[in-house]
Amino acid sequence: MNSLNTHHVNQFVDILRFSRLRRTQLLNDIGLIFEEEADKELMDTTYNKDEVEQIIKSIKDVVKNFVENEVLNINHMNVLLLQQFCKQAEFWHLNLMANISELENRQLLNNVKQFEEEQFLKNKLIKQPTTGKLEPLINEGPVGILKKEIEDLKKENETLKQDKDNLSSEIEKLNNKNKGSESKISELDNKITSLNKEIKKLQSIKYEKDIKKEEMINAIDDAIENTKRNNRKKSNDDVDDSQIDSKINNVIEKSKLSDILKGSKINIDELMKFQNIETQRKIKELTKEVESLRKDLDTKLSQSSPVQNLKRMLIERNNQYKTLKTEILKYNPDYKFQV
Predict the structure, then answer these.
(1) Residue 143 has what pLDDT?
(2) Which residues contact 134 (CB under 8 A, 6 or more apart)?
């Protein structure tokens, strides 16, 4: 009994108390049987040998039947008690073994007797509340370890569920940020498209201005040539001073206009060149910004702590389930896992 824990010792004390009560009732019932038979049979003052033998035989039969029934009841009670232990063992997939040879071991029987005397005769029993049914709790040995691991896994499963919900909210936030980044990228793409359209428009305007300038310059050159030809034809004629001044002024104005056109052409070319350089620079900056936003978004999604924590916890949980499955199959190879 010393090798058992306190809970099991108390259970055996309850069993001994019940057996002690049954034993006392049995002895009292046997005494009552003798009294009843004596009152019924011993009516005369003297009896012969045959009458005494008949009385003894009658009492013997009554006592024998009574004791036989009580012993049978005790055996059946012991079977019911063992059935409770077996059910609790099967609950944890254990197979109990009974060593029948130890039931008649005198030393062990004396130990039980001594234990009973210490508990009842010397008043050393510590009364504790008892239950009508043994609780199926096994906290020792490999089964206790497996039970504890199962409870830990259940708690960890609840924690993982909470973490999963938190990760889902984090992923939703990241998706919202992703949508915002995509809208910003789309806005930048629209800006690039509008800048390209503006460049094409400026190029078309420049092309039209160049054509108009060429036409104006050609017209001025043609006018100058016509004037020169007319002057050659009229070289022998007399020309008054007013005509000469007018022609000179026309030539001067034409030359000034040509210079102005040339200057304006240079200014327009420089302006268009500057605008093209500035537009290309803006396009490059916007393109780099779009690429940077996309790279940052991919990096945040792949290296975010919620996603990394989710991967790590799933790997640890799978490893723990594999270890627990191996331990269960080690002690019960026939155990079938639910899918």
Answers:
(1) 64
(2) 11, 84, 85, 88
The model's pTM: 0.34
Residue 119 has pLDDT above 50, yes or no: yes
Distance between CA atoms of residues 4 and 139, nearest Å: 12
Which residues are within 8 A (CB) of 93 and not within 5 positions of it... i.e. 6 or more apart? 331, 332, 335
Residue located via tokens 């094409």: 200
What the block records as the tokens of 25 is: 């009732």
Return d(Cα 272, Cα 135) in angstroms, integer: 94
User: How many degrees, rounded to 5, is the angle at CA 188 between CA 183 and CA 191?
Assistant: 130
Specify whether the CB–CB gap between 119 and 125 falls below 8 A: yes
Residue pLDDT, tens place only, 195-204: 778 778 877 8
Task: Put residue 133 in one of left, alpha, beta given phi > 0 → left and psi -120 to 50 → alpha.
Answer: beta
* 237 conformational bin, left if phi > 0, alpha if psi -120 to 50, beta if neither: beta
The domain limits of the chain are 6-137, 147-331
